[in-house]
Amino acid sequence: MTGKGAYQLERRLLGKTGWEVSPVGFGSYRIDDKTPAHREALQAALTSGCNLIDTSSNYTDGGSERLIGSVVGAVKPRDEIHVVTKAGYVQGEQLELARLRISQGKPIPEMVQFAHDCWHCISPEFLSMQIQRSLTRLGFERLDALLLHNPEYFLRTEPDHAEYYRRIRQAFEYLETEVERGRIGWYGISSNTLAHPKDAPDYTSLEVLLELANAIRPDHHFAIIEFPFNLFEPGGALERNNSGKTVLELAQENHLGVLTNRPLNAFNQGRLLRLADFPSHPARDLETELQEALTHVMQLESSYPESSDLPVKRMVWGHAIRKNFLTLVTPETWHQVRFGQIEPAIRGSLELLAGHSELAPWADEYRFRTEELFEILTAYVESEASSNAKRLAAKLDELCPELKTEPTLVRKVLKLSLSVPGIDCVLLGMRQPRYVADATATAELIAPERALATLQSLNEDPS
What we know:
This protein has about 475 residues and is of the alpha/beta class. The chain has 16 helices and 15 strands. The strands form four sheets. The protein has an eight-stranded parallel barrel, surrounded by four helices. A three-stranded antiparallel beta sheet has the order 6-8-7. A two-stranded antiparallel sheet has the order 1-2.
């Protein structure tokens, strides 16, 4: 196999598709067409030899597909890059359309309303709409592959597996017509529950999916599956939930291409754990700094001269952080809460206070003190994450000495995942050009049995 670029590992055959793909693919969950760094990262990945991109119609409300469409072809010939997109989520612009259709008395069939701001649908009518929108955003004449995106959301509102699989079969039947029409090449499923225990209420059975596809036609185009796989979610390789076989074993037997996602974002004991290295800030006494900064902000909030325009409850973020501190101690959670909730709320509140000159000194002090608190809290959670990452890296080296040659936790994790038999392509989020180096760094794999034994041991003793 040729054309691997900066990748030191050979390309792999993606099941019955016949595609030879880079061992690490470009995951585009949070990229958009407005951020220059995202464009630079995608360009760097493609020029380094990455030739598989994973996206979805709902990622950044279509911005992910638009960026991909503008870069693919400009950097590499279109036929050298494989783009896998997905459909199912109803968010943003699509949610507005779905609500409009309801108001007009013409609802999209089989819509699953599982959250206020996020619905789900895999009906033929919805899939047809999504295929056309994806083709338009990408600028392609045909989608290389379309995956049903987490169809198990249906089971959150209606725990009826018979109806669940009826809807999936209906979708498969429709997607076969889209293959014949020429709008898609292959289809499949991306599900977070393929590797769940068989008795899980939201379990999706690969065995049943294959039965559905084979019943439609023996030469079906169900060709790709995708699911999470990482150090603490290794079910795809260890959980024997398909008549004694794992998902990876059954997929290999049936020539399905296997993509895995979230290699560095693991749900462990109910919490999201980032499997990466962080700054340690060794020269700082962060516990003392954090306590002092938090005290300053809380004292300032307690002295707030309440205005009729802005109730005191809008200016209690120090108190809120102290009350919810244990839920904010990972960098991912803190980053999301800080930039998605707290800082926008504070900016809005301070804008309202700008019309009250008598409150200007208090507002200026609050702005300064909260910025100080947020910087210290960021350093604190990074330091805690750094300590955890070092302990985990040491544990991996102990269980599998072959991993000692990898200098960072990220590279240890990727090397282990890439060594698991049956995984064709690991999807790595590469929103920054510097992340591309991690994708191309692995030069040698470890023995498959050693990789599986390491995962087994780690999850038997996750301390």
